[in-house]
Amino acid sequence: MPFTRDTVNGFRYQVAVNDHGRNVLVEVLKWRYRGGNLSVKEYFRTLGRPKKKFKDMFNAEQHQILDRETPYLLNVDATFRGYDLSLLFIILRNFCGLEGSDSDAWKKPASGKKLEYLINRLKKERNDIAHTKEVKQMSDAKVIKKLKWLKRLLSRIIRTAGTISKKKPHIPRALIAGIKQEFRGLLTKVREPLDPDDLSLLPQLQKELMIFRNIIKEKVKEDSREELCELYPYLWDVTLAKWLYPDLTVRPSLNFTNLIIKEDTSRSMTINAQPRTISHEDILQVRRRDNDLPEVLIISGEGGMGKTTLLKFLTETWVENPKQITGLENVSHLIYFQLRGSSISSFKDLLKNLIPNTFQESGVKLEYFEDFFLNFNVVFLLDGYDEANEESKKLITDLLRFQQSNMRFVITTRPGCLNDLIHIAEQRKKVMNIEIKGIRRADRLYFVEKTLSEIEHDPVRRNALRDNIIANLETLYMDMDELDVPLTITLVIIREFKDPSQRSTDIYEDLTVLMMGKITERLAVQGIADAENKVKDYFSTLRKVSLRGLKRKEHDLWPETVTELKAKAVEDDSDDYHTCEVESSFHQLVKRNVELVTKEKLKDETVPQLIDFAQNAFASIKKIMNPETTSEGIQQFASGLPKLIDAFK
């Protein structure tokens, strides 16, 4: 590094912050320390607090320093002067009668507790310096301005500490006079060349700064992992059918069953490549056809296939027992985030929102905080690209710009948005797509038993429910050979669990009735007249319109049909509520209704208009499925029903 004038100025400022800042905190600590002549460790022991609290308070290097101290200090001043600014700061915050670490007094100057804020401001300045790999370059004008600011800060710390410690006025005045004298000398030297003695200290200072930077980084790494582990239990529960019974939730590990996951070979360069079957246990280690690990692993599948459950299962496993998934134990940070309804558009904002306590405690600027994570082994689980809004897509773009090989991404989406996502990801990363196909029929019993164990605690009734559900599933027609759709089984479980007395011999008809009942309840609560008949008419229309499209062979919807549907469907402006699983099950109901009329089994690929119709029809009802929908929204839906029904009679 060339020793320019700007380098010299930067070096002098670093010396001022480290040396003079430490000296000021030593004086404050001598005035405020509650332990008297007891060492910090011994004083903590007398407080009767848990040992883990003391362990978490300091890093390994600081523990080594404190462990060397005798229980009774012979020279408090000499002991404290052997501590660096970071260690002094922690002791001041925890053993000197100041506000707790979570108090706003450390963050806001207007809090009324000036000393806490002033000390924290000095610590942040120290941290900013510690995060630079080289000495900051400063012009003469800039270093003079910074030194004057630092002199005022240190003087205010001494003055404020002297006042609240009830020291005689001449004591802080003398210390402040000494600070001013020292800084006059520093300001005088700004335009002088660096003398040989100062020059010899430069390598040592740089080494110390790098050590301190690594200490902060390891502390952030440890604290952020702990904060994520505390957060995820509040996020990982799976709601079995949010749109019907939002209170029915289970832990993902108790609802997760082995999924059939296939490699997508449609983009493979290998001729006639056979798709590989991938175990969920190896999902983080699956390799592309060129034998490279994908930097972006896309998991695609229709609604209700278990994409969200899989990501939540990975999240729970990372917290509880990462060795279950190959490679997961080597992931320092697993960051799970739902893209639906997000207002977060950058990695910085994501970190600040997911781990706010770690960020605030670190005392570093946000760009430095982000830089730490670029060096950690991070896997991002981003759920629901098909539901991403503009802000969520900006977040994905921001994340994909990083070129670090230690950062990998797992993103889920429905097939309709797959090509768009691949196009975005392939511009910067190595991408691989895998598809969730369902679960084996052989795992059906296991899935049912695990789900029931969470929602029904009476073993006798649970066994009876299990037997009835398995018997009903045997009569259920499935599109996929030998594979079950998790959502379909879940709906059958809920149907049996909630009201087995109302079931008929047709499961799809029962599910239709279940959905109609929920919609009717919402309309009735809002005071809509004749809600039951309106809903019956609406669902009857679903069969008629689906059948009409089938008879006209609208394999691609006719323009007038599209226009008709868009014009008559109730507008949905609920941006923050969209449940793909509802839409998927809704399509299954429409498809089954047409089967009842035609007496034929239908394949999705032969009647794609049913999918489009189900989506349009679903848009008309999903708003009232949302418990937060206002009375005005319900009235809008109710008023639109007769128009929609009349249009297709």
TrEMBL record:
InterPro entries: HEPN_DZIP3, NACHT_NTPase, P-loop_NTPase
Residue ranges constituting the NACHT domain according to the UniProt record: 295-416
PROSITE patterns the UniProt entry points to: NACHT
UniProt protein name: NACHT domain-containing protein
Lineage: Eukaryota, Metazoa, Ecdysozoa, Arthropoda, Crustacea
